[in-house]
Amino acid sequence: SIRISHQEDEPDNFAQSVIKYLYNTFPENVPSEQNEFILTIEKVGPKIGSELRGKALMAMFSSLALILLYISIRFEFKFALGAIAALVHDILITLGLFSILNYEISLSIIAAFLTIVGYSLNDTIVIFDRIRENVKAKHRESYAETVDHSINQSLSRTIITSFTSFLVVLILWLFGGEVIHGFAFAMIIGVVAGTYSSIYIASPIVVQLHASTPKK
């Protein structure tokens, strides 16, 4: 497949000009029936691109808002802020690498971003659950020590789950074909980023917010 960036001020017959150029440049590869050479032509104009971008941002912000509400109800608001910070980190890291490598942001990549949010959130909630259990046990430890102890208890589960998930998406990236290549690459980045953000971003933010909260 060939992807060509089409500028807004270019003529409407730009696609036909490209097809004619390909016919003339690679005549040996053109079959007798030229329709077999060009299977489909898809055009994404600025209006459609803007609409897709708007819907993608709406989906992302809606999911983050619902996550904030869910964790605030299930745990505490400080846990919700820690989880949101970790999720935003994961998305920005993935988006940044896509920008550096000049990867196209398509609908499958947007789906990968939402999948990354779900994966990272699941990992974070497992740690938060352990923190809540240990805090209720009333150990003679500071809050920071309790969080650290909870992370250590969840570490083996986190590593095993992340490693198996990483192997799956790596195999998809290597052998899954071009259609799923971008999705799998985004998931590779997301699994790695989500694993350490749950430990090194979400939990420390909870500790800092707890320390800054006035004690009753």
UniProtKB/TrEMBL annotation:
<dbReference type="InterPro" id="IPR005665">
    <property type="entry name" value="SecF_bac"/>
</dbReference>
<dbReference type="InterPro" id="IPR022645">
    <property type="entry name" value="SecD/SecF_bac"/>
</dbReference>
<feature type="transmembrane region" description="Helical">
    <location>
        <begin position="80"/>
        <end position="101"/>
    </location>
</feature>
<keyword id="KW-0813">Transport</keyword>
<feature type="transmembrane region" description="Helical">
    <location>
        <begin position="107"/>
        <end position="128"/>
    </location>
</feature>
<dbReference type="InterPro" id="IPR055344">
    <property type="entry name" value="SecD_SecF_C_bact"/>
</dbReference>
<keyword id="KW-0472">Membrane</keyword>
<keyword id="KW-0811">Translocation</keyword>
<keyword id="KW-1133">Transmembrane helix</keyword>
<dbReference type="InterPro" id="IPR022813">
    <property type="entry name" value="SecD/SecF_arch_bac"/>
</dbReference>
<keyword id="KW-0812">Transmembrane</keyword>
<feature type="domain" description="Protein export membrane protein SecD/SecF C-terminal">
    <location>
        <begin position="37"/>
        <end position="210"/>
    </location>
</feature>
<dbReference type="InterPro" id="IPR048634">
    <property type="entry name" value="SecD_SecF_C"/>
</dbReference>
<dbReference type="Pfam" id="PF02355">
    <property type="entry name" value="SecD_SecF_C"/>
</dbReference>
<feature type="transmembrane region" description="Helical">
    <location>
        <begin position="159"/>
        <end position="176"/>
    </location>
</feature>
<feature type="transmembrane region" description="Helical">
    <location>
        <begin position="182"/>
        <end position="207"/>
    </location>
</feature>
<dbReference type="GO" id="GO:0015450">
    <property type="term" value="F:protein-transporting ATPase activity"/>
</dbReference>
<dbReference type="GO" id="GO:0005886">
    <property type="term" value="C:plasma membrane"/>
</dbReference>
<feature type="transmembrane region" description="Helical">
    <location>
        <begin position="56"/>
        <end position="73"/>
    </location>
</feature>
<keyword id="KW-1003">Cell membrane</keyword>
<dbReference type="GO" id="GO:0006886">
    <property type="term" value="P:intracellular protein transport"/>
</dbReference>
<keyword id="KW-0653">Protein transport</keyword>
<protein>
    <recommendedName>
        <fullName>Protein translocase subunit SecF</fullName>
    </recommendedName>
</protein>
